[in-house]
Each structure stands twice: as C-alpha cells, then as structure tokens.
Design goal:
The chain is mainly beta. It folds into three domains: 20-95, Sandwich (Immunoglobulin-like), CATH 2.60.40.1120; 116-407, no CATH class; 449-624, no CATH class. The protein is built from eight helices and 32 strands. The protein has helices at 4-19, 116-133, 379-385, 392-408, 411-421, 426-430, 451-454, 532-542, and strands spanning 22-30, 41-44, 50-52, 58-64, 66-73, 80-86, 90-95, 137-151, 155-156, 159-160, 174-188, 192-202, 225-226, 236-237, 248-258, 261-270, 279-285, 291-299, 309-320, 323-337, 340-355, 368-370, 435-439, 444-448, 455-458, 462-476, 481-492, 497-507, 512-523, 549-564, 567-580, 615-624. The chain has an eleven-stranded mixed beta sheet, with helices on both faces.
Length: 625
Amino acid sequence: MKHLPFIFLVLLFLPAASISQTLTLKGKIKDEQKQHVPFASIYISNTSKGTSANSEGEFSIKLEKGNYELTFKAIGYSSRTEKVKLTEDQIITITLKSESFQLKDIVIKSNAEDPAYAIIRKAIRQRAIYHKQLKGYNADVYIKGLQRMYKAPKKILGIDVDANALGLDSNRRGIYYLSESESKLSFMPPNDFKEEMISSKVSGSSKAFSFNRATAMNVDFYANHQNWEGLSNRPVISPIADNALSYYNYKWLGTTTENGLEVNKIRVIPKRKAEPVFSGDIYIIEDSWRIHSANLSLTKSAGINFVDTLTIRQDFTPIAEKDWYPSLTRFDFRARIMGFDFGGYFIAVYRNYELGTKMDKKAFREVMRISKDVSKKDSVYWNQARPVPLTGEEETDYSKKQVLATKKESKPYLDSVDKAKNKFKFSRFLLLGGYTHRNRYNKETYRFNSILGSTYFNTVEGWGLDYGVSYFKPIDTVTNRYMNLSAKARYAFSAKRFNASLSGNLPFKFANIGFKMGSDMLDMNSQSPIPALANSYNSLVYERNYLKIYQKRFAELSLSRRLAGGLRGYISTEWSERKWLPNSTDYSWRDVENRSFSSNNPFSPSMETPLFAQHQAFILNLNLS
C-alpha cells in the first residue's frame, strides 16, 4: 500500500504524456501535372514553426497531437492552406497550382509607363522603413549544401583526375559534396550577427565540419546593395534600392491573392549589361509594399566570380502581424571551369523565431562559435532533427561514402598508405625535398630537412649547415590546438662555431604553452627580409653580403589562451645574451671588379666596427587581440 501515492502520480501524468505525444506528418508536394515541387515551404499558419520540402518535393514535420492549419507555398505556385487533424503519424499529398496572375482593368497607352514603376517607387519609399524595422531575433537555421559534378575531365594540365577520390561514378558524374548543419542564429539591429553551429554532418567524413554558415546565406534586399566579397568585386544593387530606377527596367506581370493579401509580380530587367544587377522576378504586397518573395539571378555579365549563374530564391513569412522574416533562402549555381561542369545548391530553412529578445551587445563580440562535439551527432539524432528529408540519392551518398570513410580511417588502410608514402628517397633527402614520415592513424608527422636546403654561406660564418627536424601532432582541429616540437643544430665551418636550439608548443586545457631555448645566429632585422638561400647566392656570385647577423643565446617561455569571446591573450618572457661578430671570410666564386664585401655593421659598411657591445637582455611581451 505504501506505493499507492507513487502509482497515483504515474496514472495522473499518463494522460498528459499521451497528449504531448510527438507525431510525424509526412507528405509529397506535386503540381497539376503530378510532377514534384522542389523546396516548397511548409509552415503552421501565423507561426515560425515549419520546414521545407527536399529536391523531390518530400517533406516531414514533427508535431504534437492536435488540429493544425498548414500553409504550403513555393515560388511560381499559388499557396495553399490545408487543415490537418493529427491523431497519429500521417502521410498526405498536396497539389499546388501554377501561379495565376490577373491583369487589372488598367488602360495602358502606347507611350505610358508600365504600372510596375508605380509599385516599385512605393516599395523604394518603404525600403528604408522596413530595413530599420527589423527587430532583434533568435532563430534556428538548418542548412543543406549539395554540389554535383555533371562532367569531369580525365586530365587537367597533364595530371590525372581521380574520379574515385571525388566520389564520382564511372561516367565521372555524381555528388562530390553533401553536408548538413544546424545553427543558432542571433541578430541585433542594425547589422550584428552571432552564430553557433551545434551540429554538422559531411558525407564521407565523420570528423570534418561543413562549410555551411547561416551568416553567409544572409540576403537582405531591403539594403541598397549586397556586399558579397569574393563572389562579386562590386556591390550588387537591390531591385528596390534608392537608385534602382537608374539600373533596372520593370514589367508588371499581374496580381494574385494569397491569404487575403494582393501580391504583385514584377519582372526585373537590367538596363545595361556588365553592371552588378539582378534579373528575374520580385513579388510585392499591395498596400504595404513589402517584399513577399524573390526569384533573382546573377550571370557572368554581372561580373560575378567562380560561377556562371547564381539564382537566389527567398520566401518571407509573417511571424507577427507586422513582422515578416525569411522562412527559406536558397542559392542555386552552375559553373564550367577547365573542363569541369558542376553545380549545386545551398538551402537555409529558418524556424522558431524569437522576436523582441533582450540582446547583450557584448555577446556579439563573438560572431561564430563551433561546438566541440559539432560532428559527433549520430544518424538517430539526424533522423529526428533533420527538417528536410533526404532524397534516395542523398541517403545512398551518405551510406556509400560512410563505408569508404570508415575504411579510410581504419588502421590497416592508413598504415598501407603510410607504407607507400613514407618510402625514403635519398636524392630527395639530399636535395630540396627532405624526408617526411607520417603516422596517419596516430596523427603524427616527423619532418627532416634536406641537406642541400640546410646548407648556407655568409661572410660571418663562411660555409655552414643549419639542419633541423620537427614533430607535429594535431590535438583538436576545431579549436586549432596542436603539439609541435622542433630541434636544430647549426655549425659554421669557417668560424668553427656551433649553435643548437629546441622549441615547441604544448597545449593544455587552459592554454597553449610555448618555449624556446639554446643559441642561434639571427638576422639583425627581426623581420628577416633576406632569405639565407638568397644571401648565399648573392654572396658567392655577386660579392654582395646583404645579411647582417649576430649570435644569440636565449631562453623563452610563452603562454596564450582565449580570455573571453573572441578576445585572446598572449604573454612571453625572454632572457637572452647577444654578441656581435665580424666577418670571418671573403670567399666568393668570382671576383667582381670594383666590388668587395661590406662589414657586418650596416652603419659602417667599410670598416669592421662593433655595432654593439656584448650584453644581456630581459624582455616581457604582452599582447591582446
């Protein structure tokens, strides 16, 4: 009987548990010809909760048991609202009709202005208002990126192109990059963003994190122009920029009604080629003159880099009565470079907006954070968290490349690669290549410098050998923590002088500790603008000894760490003993007429006058970045 209160509580909460049961609504979105509609947006009406269909029109959304009103929309199609009563997992099919735009009863004379211009002028007047009205928000952003090879050459510049390494089939086609990521995105007006990537999945690798960035997907047509560094050398002008009428022609294609709103479709036409402008369609809501959606493209004629065409599709959804925010942004691209024909897309789905959240400006000093376990989420997690279902081809790509990745990360495979790559070649070791021994499984690299590359000549030491070896091991690639040890020995045959030093970097949980100790011959210019090889060549062939050096015995200890946000601190201490040395030889391969070596004192080139007396120094260095 003593367990009755506990049993009563369990029975009491059982109905609540059943009420809050999470169910899955799946479906397909098709057009009137039964063809799938790719990347349509699906949202619970008047909320920011939603998802997107994949490239084959398939969608999946998890909801609590209950009644819902869902809105289905895609550029080029009339939106549709569907009431769904969800009592169990359900599969539905939604048909979207091609958008039908009606022309109003407007009499347009032959020399009259197109009605689109009046609409665009009103949108331009409202542009700055809507740009400033954007409130601070937090949102969840899911991004999927896919890049596909349509054709790859067998060789490029005489070098074989390995189709298998790119993940291509026997026809040299297929997906070569597929990734997904989830981020928490925060925005504080007017233009501050903070992003935390919380999960990432890259096909063919269990350790890498994706290139996806929510901030890189940011498109704001309410701004006068888009600054896309790298993609375009010039700012790209918005179709509703203050000066847009100087760059664009417009054509009104009609209106349609969506959820009681009248939406105008405007064709955007560049006035001149070779200017950084878009072409395509922009949809403007009547009376409020805000952007409803956009389907705009850039081509090579606009001066973009890397790709031949880039299409930006953006949908907006009302989060509150007067607040419209992006629900979906999609970039599609296609390019042909040096025999490679490739293309793909990046799609960002924005969900769970939180408006009016109190923002701390200090938090935005850190603009990007990648969680340590960002790539550790398993398939069970992704099956639950992924808002956009995978297509059959994408599932195959993940599973096939996972098998290859598992094999390539196994010890037998890595050992076999090392066995082939680590073969010692005396000619390479003697000349300029040196020798590198890698243990890929343990992530260790040993480097031995070449003999010829370590040989030098200068007038202070004469001929000498400055030989070094090093050890490198990454500890954490996300936080860029690594272990590095280096040792070198330097012997001058003419001056009969020996120097040796040891240096390294040791990562700890709280900081990186660095150290240096020993003795060395150093350039008096701490920036070392004259490479030893260049000085050797000039000294031996032209009797020009540009390098001015001194001997230094030293011991140095440094500490660096992240203090807060993006702020890093660095402190180092050094004890050193410095000694100036005169030239010890005037040897050269040829005697240049009317020319002789200068002294090792740059202020007294014709006389070996000591530049400074032998002394000791203690140096403290503090740095914040």
